[in-house]
Write a structure and sequence with these properties.
By secondary structure, the chain is of the alpha+beta class. It is built from nine helices and 22 strands. The protein has helices spanning about 15-25, 270-290, 330-335, 350-365, 390-395, 400-415, 420-430, 440-450, 455-460; strands at about 35-40, 50-60, 65-75, 85-90, 105-115, 115, 125-135, 140-150, 160, 165, 175, 175-180, 180-185, 200-210, 220-225, 230-240, 245, 250-255, 260-265, 300-305, 310-315, 315-320. The protein is globular and about 65 Å long. Residues about 5-45 have low confidence and may be disordered. Its EC number is 3.4.11.-. It comes from Streptomyces galilaeus.
Length: about 475
């Protein structure tokens, strides 16, 4: 996530960090972690359920504010322990919770087949479904259910701006159970709570023909019923599925490396900003492909409006608040690798995607980071770069450190190892965690493996403990 479009402007690192600090402190809001639910802890359990496939068919109303239909998800138990239940994460309910009788929850699931649902928990963002019998290791099963999605009246990743609808984190997805148990962390607005394994999606979106519908995956739009169209999307090995809807203007170009960049922008979005976004996205997708590994999804959609707050990343689709100076497009494109391809638990370790994406952003723009660590202010000796969203939510004024201290630490690591060694480290690390899940411990181990120098003091100095 990129709260502020200033990140993509060609400013010095120090100036960017100061601006970011001031603005983040102005907009940050306290987020509660009340309501967290945790399952029993398991030693050595593999992340499960995995190899999921989502088949989704939704139909929208006249302006894309409401979508309803049927969803099916099949999955495997990768753990050596029987799977007796699964959880659906209804992240779209995070901001407003369970709703009221007059205004029901934004995302509702009903008519479940293949399991028995409980009442939604964790502020209506986690729906437990008991399986009819324990699912053995390596076995597959499926669930099917009706889903109803109502876009909230707010300008947010799941929200709206004028005639345009954003459906980020709107589709129910499976929670993850690993060695720590079920990950049922609360929703946070300050950053992200999301943790998902890669899955395949086959999505059919039926909508009025006047609406353009950018979406995760390779898409095509076909004629539907009278006055309607159907957008079909195929997305393999992605961690989530997002889409938008509205009377967008559109343009498509292909990068020299063969990636299709599809641009969607609202009328009134500054033309120069749209041009800069398109130019930077084309350059960034190929550059990061060379540095980290070829972009595997074939297509990426840029969704641009003038009023969206900052930017937000999804596999193959980014939402961008755009000014005349562009947006945070490079940072969001970098997230295709740091969160998308190399996954992480964004609630427990937000630095693993945000700091790495911002480091890539800084390198792309050529910011001078040689003295940026000296500009970092730590409020006390206990705070650390690797804090979870539980910590940052209690200290929202410090959350900027993930975006400022984090890339500074990685830039210092590059100077410690040498540019060539750092490049080799990152490319190898992405390869070793391709479509997998990273951790701070794994990154530290990988970094130590490329040098004879003891990096212990480096980690301590840079609060990567």
């Amino acid at each position: 996530m990129s709260p502020l479009a200033v990140w993509s402007a060609p400013l010095s690192a120090r100036r960017v960090f100061v601006v970011l600090l001031v603005l983040l402190m102005a907009v940050a809001a306290q987020v509660s972690d009340a309501g967290a639910v945790s399952g029993p802890r398991e030693a050595g359990a593999a992340a499960t359920p995995d190899r999921a496939r989502y088949d989704v068919a939704l139909r929208s109303d006249a302006d894309g504010s409401h979508w309803s239909g049927r969803q099916r998800v099949s999955f495997r138990n990768a753990s050596d322990r029987p799977l007796r239940e699964v959880y659906l994460r209804l992240w779209g309910n995070g901001a407003d919770g369970c709703g009221t009788p007059a205004a029901p929850a934004a995302v509702r699931v009903s008519h479940v087949r293949g399991g028995t649902p409980n009442r939604p928990a964790v502020n209506c963002t986690a729906l437990r479904i008991a399986l009819p019998k324990p699912l053995a290791r390596g076995a597959r099963t499926s669930l099917a259910f009706d889903v109803s999605i109502t876009v909230p009246d707010r300008n947010a990743r799941f929200g709206r701006e004028g005639a345009f609808r954003f459906l980020g984190n709107a589709l129910p997805v499976l929670a993850v159970r690993d060695a720590k148990g079920w990950h049922l962390d609360p929703y946070v607005a300050l950053g992200e709570s999301f943790y998902a394994l890669t899955s395949d999606f086959r999505v059919r979106l039926d909508h009025p023909s006047a609406l353009k519908v950018p979406a995760t995956g390779r898409t095509r739009t076909l004629p539907g019923g009278p006055g309607r169209s159907v957008t079909l999307s195929l997305a393999d090995r992605v961690r989530d599925f997002a889409w938008a809807a509205g009377p967008f203007r559109t343009a498509t170009q292909t990068t020299p490396g063969g990636v299709r960049v599809r641009s969607y922008w609202a009328p009134g979005t500054p033309a120069e900003g749209v041009r800069l976004n398109r130019t930077d996205a084309v350059a960034a997708i190929d550059r990061f492909g060379r540095e980290f590994g070829r972009y595997p999804y074939g297509e990426i959609d840029l969704v641009m409006t003038s009023g969206f707050g900052g930017g937000m990343e999804y596999p193959g689709l980014v939402l961008l608040g755009t000014t005349e100076e562009g947006s945070a497009v490079v940072h969001e494109v970098a997230h295709q690798w740091w969160y998308g391809i190399v996954g992480n638990d964004e609630y427990s370790s937000p630095w693993l995607d945000e700091s790495f994406a911002q480091y890539a952003n800084a390198r792309f723009h050529g910011w001078d980071t040689r003295d940026c660590w000296s500009d970092v202010y730590w409020p006390d000796d206990e705070s650390a770069l690797i804090g979870s969203m539980a910590y940052w939510s209690r200290h929202p004024g410090e959350y900027h450190l993930v975006y400022t201290a984090g890339p500074c630490a990685l830039a210092d690591l590059e100077r410690t190892l040498g540019a060539d060694t750092m490049a080799r480290l990152l490319k190898g690390y992405v390869r070793d965690h391709w479509y997998g899940v990273s951790s701070t411990a794994a990154f530290k181990k990988a970094a130590q493996s490329v040098t004879d120098q003891d990096l212990g003091p480096f980690w301590e100095t840079h609060r990567i403990r």
